[in-house]
Every structure is written in C-alpha cells, then in structure tokens.
Specification:
By secondary structure, the protein is of the alpha+beta class. About 40% of the residues lie in helices and about 30% in strands.
C-alpha cells in the first residue's frame, strides 16, 4: 500500500512520469522519471491516513523517521548541487520473464523521448554501488559516471548523467 501510494504520487505529478510496457493485460516493466520528488513528498504528506495505514506501529520507530528524513535530505542535496541535472530517472523495473529481452533499453529510450518532449536534455541516475549489472547497463547506454554518494546513511550509490543529445548516446 505504501509503495502504491508512492507511485500514485508520481503518476499524479506534473513533473514526473510513469511509462509502462504491457502485453496480454500484464505489465512487463516500467520506468519512473521526473524532475520533482518534492511534489511526490507533498502528495504523500497530505495523505497521512493512506501513508500510515500500512504500518501504524512501525511509524513510531526511529528507523522509519530516519529513512524518510535521509531520503528527503539526499534529494534536497542533489537538487541544490549545481553540477547535477535536476531531472532524474528514478527506477526501471522489468518482469523476471522479460530480463535480457531488451525491454529495459526500450524503457530507457522511451524515457529519453518523454524527457526530450519536456525540453529536458540531460538527467541523472543513482545506482547502488553493489548493482554491477545495472551499472554495466547504464554505461553501455552511454551514461557517464560522475560521482559517488551515500543514501540512507551507509548505502553507497553511483551517480550517472545521461545527455540525450550526446554523440555517444544510444538511439
């Protein structure tokens, strides 16, 4: 329910987009992209009953508040960094049956079209440092590794940027 609220917030935002791939009434994968997680946080904060419905006891745990604060702080620090693009590819997910089919690349390229349509030529991607396949995927597409960061206290991540107009970018 909490994850559904997050994606509902993304979908309702004017600055964020969800792109789906489906066949036979089944979602095979999706990509979440955008320019304002603040709209998402605002949407969620103004729906406390939906937010707390899933975990009424856990919300009083320090670790829950800490995780929310760290996510918000990380996003704020990346937005205030003038060297990083404001827009971001938040997440690509592909159904297990479709892994290796090229669907993730299709979703990536579709996200580039949506960014371009909204006059966005460059965006960032944060990838967990331990996710070597994801790193390889983005690097093959022409994403440029620019920095390392930590999310949620000790979770190390790599920040990539992708320039849609770059010659190295895959079309």
């Amino acid at each position: 329910e909490t994850i559904a609220l997050f994606y509902e917030a993304l979908d309702s935002s004017k600055s964020n987009f969800l792109i789906f791939s489906e066949s036979d009434n089944r979602i095979n994968g999706f990509v979440a992209i955008g320019s304002s997680m603040f709209e998402v946080y605002k949407y969620i904060i103004f729906r406390p009953l939906k937010l707390f419905k899933d975990f009424p006891i856990n919300i009083f745990r320090f670790s829950v508040f800490k995780g929310i604060f760290e996510s918000f702080h990380h996003n704020l620090s990346q937005h205030s960094n003038k060297d990083l693009p404001k827009s971001e590819l938040y997440h690509i997910a592909v159904h297990q049956d479709k892994k290796g089919s090229g669907l993730a690349k299709e979703l990536f390229m579709e996200s580039c079209k949506v960014f371009k349509k909204n006059n966005i030529n460059i965006f960032r991607i944060n990838v967990g440092k331990r996710l070597l396949r994801a790193q390889s995927f983005y690097e093959k597409l022409g994403c440029k590794r620019i920095s390392e960061t930590t999310i949620h206290g000790s979770e190390e991540s790599i920040t990539y940027i992708y320039n849609i107009d770059n010659e190295r970018s895959v079309n």
